[in-house]
Amino acid sequence: MSLYATEGGLPPIARRIFPIVAGLPLGPMLTLSLRSLARRRPVMFERLGEHRSVRYFIDPVDLAFAFTIVPDGMRSVVRVVRKEEAAESSVVVRGPLLMLLGLLDGTLDGDALFFNRVISVSGSTEAVLALRNTIEDAELLPADLLGLSGSLASAMNAGILGGLETLRRLTRPEQSREEA
Description:
This protein is of the alpha+beta class. It has a single domain (12-170), classed as 2-Layer Sandwich (Nonspecific Lipid-transfer Protein, Chain A). Helices cover 52% and strands 13% of the residues. It is built from nine helices and five strands; from the N terminus they run H-H-H-E-E-E-E-H-H-E-H-H-H-H. It has helices spanning 12-22, 26-40, 42-46, 97-105, 110-115, 125-138, 142-146, 150-171, 174-179, and strands at residues 56-60, 66-70, 77-81, 91-95, 120-123.
């Protein structure tokens, strides 16, 4: 069995970990994290304006589940949902998990991923742009989402971002890995 995946999908070793993660109460944990971020950085959520109450459907195509997110500040909600629930959302964003995480932490360019058809986006253009601009301006790091600060935040950022980069390298097709 190869450690490598193709076309941005999760490597087999990571796919073995995600059933364990999927058993955790991800929705409530992510909801608390988003609300904590809203308490610390309310301007970020205010920037969304009328799009704060929009339901965003985020579909990591290499996972068996998806997420709906309503980024409404202290009333934010994240739910783990079935992939069939996309029709109930105003915006649908689909792509490999590692690419979607790269959009969140700013290590990847959303426009490049979209135009290279690595991710797909449909629904309300205004809401998508509001979310994209808000995320880009926020310059989020993993510690921001976890509510950490100081040396613990620095260590967590280095560890998580380094781990994500390693996983991304493992997901590159063979030719790209040889060039890197």
